[in-house]
Prior knowledge:
With 312 residues, the protein is an alpha/beta fold. It has nine helices and seven strands.
Amino acid sequence: MLENDRDTCEFRIRDVDAAGGRKDDDHTSPVLEAPTERPRLWGSLSLDIDDVRDLMAMRRMQLVGVLGTPAAGKTAALVSLYLLLAHGKLEGFQYADSLTLMALEEITQGARRWGPAPPDEMTARTEQTDGRSAGFLHFQMKQESGGLIDFIIPDLPGEWSDALIETKHVDRLDFLHSADVIWLFVNGMELRQPAQRMRAISRAKSLLRRLVEMMVDGMPPIKIVVTHADLGALPEKTKRNLEAIFDGVATAVDILEISSFPGEGKVPVGLGIAALISESLPQPSKRPVTWASKEPVASRFILRYANSEPRP
């Protein structure tokens, strides 16, 4: 552009070959060097589904599916679980680690401190946001046997369960297909009130029916979690009506009563939470028999010794 002499131009790149390319270019190195990647630490907030996939690819995780209508006590149970672990009061288990401490701290603030009288609600209700993915919480616990167990438990708004009942909206609940166990929460306060009892049972039945329709490839064990056990044991008739909704469900179903927070000091703190965790532990799988025998092994054993004679 400046019409300078080719041999003396100060802007000329001198390390070029006859073809006009750089002499040190082997045509194999990248144009830009890849930036150095540093290990990414977990943000301690709730995990999304991609985080859960990564964790489950690295080590064994017990994924829990959680369902229940609004105000059924789902978040309160998670808060109670965390506080019990933090104070070393979860029978049979000790706190080991968590990748979601900030998220756990956030949902437990209301249950930590209050004035002269406790608040009407110990936990803030999980709000439905525009996001379509679930927020998962991580608990690593040490069992009395010495082994470590990792639980991944979602904190879901009750509106998602309502949508499953009313509109069969299941796409954002796809993770349930990978769940090892499902906790279906039922509001125990409603079960103990005659005016609301049948509605609560009907909603639980509808939710269970939708769940069966959704899980066509097989159903994991289901734990029916009845909250507000501090109000007293369920009437036998109510319990039988609740058990009747399990008819035709091809999986193991148990009813567990919990009390996330004590009512007037009549029951222990976190009643039933430890039992819920124990009942949700992974079950050891039975090893298949490689060469199955057509006759009972015990019979062969007995006959062999019954017909044997001492050798001379």
